[in-house]
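Minutes, methods subgroup
Present: GH (chair), OT, SY

1. OT presented the first of two proteins processed in the latest run. Sequence and structure tokens recorded below as shown on screen.
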Amino acid sequence: PANPAAVPKTGSQKAATLKARLARILTASAIKPADQDNLPSHFTLGVDRIDAALRGNARADGLPRAALHELHAASKEDRTSTAAMALLLAQRCRNDLPILWISESGEARRQGRLYPPGLAELGIDPDRIIHVDAPNSIAALRAAADGMRSAAMGAVIVELAGKKPRGLDLTATRRLS
């Protein structure tokens, strides 16, 4: 045909085109893709059955690195265990870089702050956590987006209060992912 772009592409051609486009975008932004840092694309939890269940459509067991993961407490009483799970997952994939923990200052006053001796009991070095008290959920999301852009952070945890925090929408989650 006179216009090669008018020819329908196969699935593999579309994937190759998208990968090339993503590579150009990442090169322009100076962000290094997760697969270029010589680390596995996924991290496992050490339980074969759980790791296989988390695989989804990926070819690797476990949770993807450099990806957005959301944890929600079933009730107010479960918030502490949910926070501990988030910290343990972050510890698992942080690659010896610090963890950035961002919370709303009002929520931290109500729920409590990170407790260094408790972190040490979980096997997490308190010196490897950078804690940010944001005045509200919008500021917390902005700080999280900035933290995600930094190559100096191994993981970013943002703790937001309520069932529907202000500012947490599809645009915000897209920016974080």
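2. SY then presented the second protein from the same run.
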Amino acid sequence: DVTGVQTCALPIWTLDSPHYPYKLEWLAALREAMAPQVEANGRFVITGDFNIIPTDDDVWDATKFVGSTHVTEPERKALAALRDLGLTDVMPRAMKYDTPYTYWDYRAGMFHKNQGMRIDLVYASSTVASGVKDAYVDRDARKGTGPSDHAPVVVDIDD
């Protein structure tokens, strides 16, 4: 099981969790696996729940995460190393609020207060990124039957 702490009703893995170094190793392996694809100018997208907040602007209050995962320098450096391969962070446009968060904890009304974070990321090769016409977070999908604490990022690409 994951060793967790509670901060603002949001479960966060601690830095001494065995999952933390595993996460960093996994990100390094992902970068290594993707490097040849980028060099070959492949058309691809890497997307998913990275459980990393890329910048302090991507979370409602970065101070709530001090000493926790999601905002550490090694995690952010691993994301930057992935982007440095030549990938573009496809930033969804803001819709209801001025921030395109993709995750809100269920507790304490965080969704309705827009106390969220952007941890579901879309990284595209340059050939795909050049065709992006729109990107947004589908907040309504989070509200549906059997909702998730995440909302999908929708990307419209002119192929």
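Chair's summary of item 2: The chain has a mean pLDDT of 87.
Next meeting: continue with the remaining queue.
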